[in-house]
Design goal:
Elements: E1 2-4, H1 11-17, E2 29-30, H2 31-35, H3 38-47, E3 52-54, H4 59-73, E4 79-89, E5 92-104, E6 107-116, H5 118-122, H6 126-143, E7 147-156, E8 174-179, H7 184-206, H8 216-219, E9 221-222, E10 225-230, E11 236-240, H9 243-248, E12 254-259, E13 262-263, H10 264-268, H11 277-291
Parallel strand pairs: 1-3, 2-5, 6-7
Antiparallel strand pairs: 4-5, 5-6, 7-8, 9-13, 10-11, 10-12
Length: 292
């Protein structure tokens, strides 16, 4: 990947970004890749040397790396920090780097540190549950020690004290979020289903076939909608999922505003979007619809 510096960040920041600390080790797939879209993983595999990202978009990664130093200095006698584990499933070696394991009389408690937004804390990500349960299965498979608890330690980068009066808003800039621990059988089935999806995508890539498409969830898709707004107004009176519904509820003095669907991840966060036929087709269709 090529790192650009279009915003003129200091050389020290650029140097740090050029020295990534992450590695999945001698594994076929990491926990992070396992949870990612199989299509994206294969497109990255093919186009990684051509991917460009500006340093200004990677600053928060440095904060994530800084967590490792916090863990090192705050390590207790019953803590295991930054341990990478490897286990084989159906011929695939899966690896996961676990931020913190706390040794208790009953087993191990797993914690993962996230530098994230208040919105993410208020709308807990499903991937957090998936990731922690994969870690639990790795620990129990490799160490033969029961996992007794899972949690996310969220460091909220955009936290403000004035917003703590809002319902559901985190009351401190660092919060611990308990994560549900699945039964072992459910964890194993989930890992196997994700491995099957990635194996199928890799086969298609290696045989120059058709890659599986990303799901709406993987694209962070926002469907098209139609809003009824008052003439000269700013806010919508109501928003409908179809134009027909909006037309049925349209009254005098109001108009219908079309809000095209978005694929937020594709448009703003996916590094391989320029080489993705699925996204390029979506953009072409959007352009055609808007020109009608």
């Amino acid at each position: 990947m090529k790192i650009t510096n279009n915003c003129g960040l200091p050389d020290t920041i650029i140097s740090a970004l050029h020295r990534p600390t992450y590695t999945k080790g001698d594994a076929h797939i990491s926990c992070t890749e396992l949870l990612n879209s199989p299509r994206i993983v294969q497109l990255k595999r093919k186009h990684w040397d051509d991917v460009e990202q500006d340093a200004s978009e990677m600053v928060w990664q440095l904060f994530g790396s800084a967590i490792h130093h916090i863990l090192e200095h705050g390590k207790g006698e019953n803590h295991i920090i930054e341990e990478r584990l490897f286990a084989e499933f159906s011929g695939w070696v899966l690896s996961g780097a676990i931020d913190l394991q706390t040794v208790t009389p009953d087993g191990l408690e797993i914690s993962d540190y996230k530098t994230t937004s208040a919105y993410s804390v208020m709308n807990e990500k499903a991937d957090w549950t998936y990731q922690l349960n994969i870690y639990a299965h790795l620990v129990e498979t490799v160490k033969k020690i029961p996992v007794t608890g899972l949690s996310i330690v969220a460091i909220i980068r955009d936290w403000t004290a004035r917003d703590t009066k809002r319902e559901g808003y985190p009351q401190a800039p660092i919060v611990t979020i308990p994560i549900t621990l699945w039964p072992a059988e459910d964890r194993e089935q989930f890992i196997q289903s994700r491995l099957n999806a990635h194996a199928a995508a890799m086969f298609e890539a290696d045989t120059e076939g058709t890659l599986p498409e990303c799901t709406p969830e993987e694209m962070w898709e926002r469907p098209s909608s139609w809003a009824i707004k008052k003439e000269g107004g700013v806010r919508a009176k109501a928003v409908y999922s179809t134009k027909e519904e909006a037309e049925l509820n349209l009254t005098k003095g109001y108009f219908i505003e079309s809000r095209p669907g978005e694929r937020v991840r594709c448009a703003n966060y996916c590094q391989v979007a320029p080489w993705c036929s699925q996204y390029q087709s979506f953009k072409e269709k959007q352009s055609a619809d808007q020109s009608e």
